[in-house]
Amino acid sequence: VIDIGALYSTTGAFTYDPGFTSTASCESAITFIDGDAGILLHRGYPIDQLAEHGDFLEVCYLLLYGELPTKAQKDDFDYRVTRHTMVHEQMSRFFTGFRRDAHPMAVMCGVVGALSAFYHDSTDISDPYQRMVASMRLIAKMPTIAAMAYKYHIGQPFIYPKNELNFAANFLHMCFAVPCEEYKINPVLARAMERIFILHADHEQNASTSTVRLAGSSGANPFACIAAGIACLWGPAHGGANEAALNMLGEIGHVDNIPEFIARAKDKNDPFRLMGFGHRVYKNYDPRAKIMQKTAHEVLGELGIKDDPLLDIAMELEKIALTDEYFIEKKLYPNVDFYSGITLKALGFPTTMFTVLFAVARTVGWIAQWKEMIEDPHQKIGRPRQLYTGATERDYVPIAKR
Ligand code: ACO
């Protein structure tokens, strides 16, 4: 009979770390977070500077290649991404297989996974050129697929990419333009969209990125890996939080009801959590939340939305939570998703699209992390161990004798 306790003691160092709160799974040179100080750097550059001055494709280049591009490099990168914005026409038929009321994230899991069935050449991960092409394809096609999921959901025809527009503006165009009508890009809204994409571009080894790395560690192709990341992102404790946060603000309904919800969040017997609050890593303030709050105000101001009741609730909730003993003690601060929902709603997106937009932005982080892993000479298949708590060895009992 195997002595299970002895087994663990003979396999060398063994750590039991549920949720991997103190286990590094890889080395990475892409993103640095100091959660206590509220710092987020991409390749050394602070997120607020990138969000203020950069454009999304510039940040994509930075994450993928480690340096900000020169003008010539940026032009070349933009051109290469732009060349890949269309999806195979056959793919558009894929959408019609889904029910119209399907959640767009369900559609995204399926359609993005199916990219490997359309681009066989990019599934050869041993070829650096094909890895680059796969990266371009994913960054370029995600907004197109996301916009198609949205159009399908609302019963409108697909709008093809307009490649003279920048990444964010093109995305708004594909989502909100309708045939036979001119769609004018509002630069303030396009800039807000761009900032949302930048703020969500990467966040080191979060659940979905770790999922992408784990899937990729077996040699799975990048499209399959990104589909795995999308599936993980969907959960309300991760990317689904922006949708959940906005729904929660709606449920609170009025600033007068906030104390009741704060009390529920503190009650150990109530599973309710304040959505958009708390973060595994940030125990000071999520630096992205500050930028997102400013962006929310800019968008509402531009659209002339005064006294948005949800924004009022959000601001009051933040104020109360930040001075409440429970939230201070547990170091719970608004995260990026707290204000992104309000902004996306004002931009015209339904809540079901929020996590989809997160996936569009995070694709570059996933692919940069995947590429870094594939190019790491020490890369191994990811294979966490477990602490076995089941039955000890016993003999099979025939069914008649059980
Ligand atoms: N509301 C009320 N209490 C909370 C909240 C919350 N939002 N978040 C954490 N707590 C409490 C927990 O009940 C726990 O209390 P305890 O110590 O008495 O048991 C304590 O704070 C620590 O919580 P954990 O769940 O252990 O912290 P963890 O780091 O694992 O969780 C998480 C982080 C999942 C983000 C959590 O704060 C949460 O569920 N937040 C709401 C969902 C959300 O906004 N997610 C978005 C994350 S950001 C992103 O994905 C971009």
Automatic annotation (TrEMBL):
Active site, UniProt feature: H279, D337
Catalytic activity: oxaloacetate + acetyl-CoA + H2O = citrate + CoA + H(+)
UniProt keyword terms in alphabetical order: Acyltransferase, Transferase, Tricarboxylic acid cycle
Annotated family: Belongs to the citrate synthase family.
Species name: Mesorhizobium tamadayense
Keyword Chloroplast on entry: no
Name listed for the protein in its UniProt record: Citrate synthase
PANTHER family on file: CITRATE SYNTHASE
GO biological process terms on file: tricarboxylic acid cycle
Key word Transferase present: yes
Functional pathway: Carbohydrate metabolism; tricarboxylic acid cycle; isocitrate from oxaloacetate: step 1/2
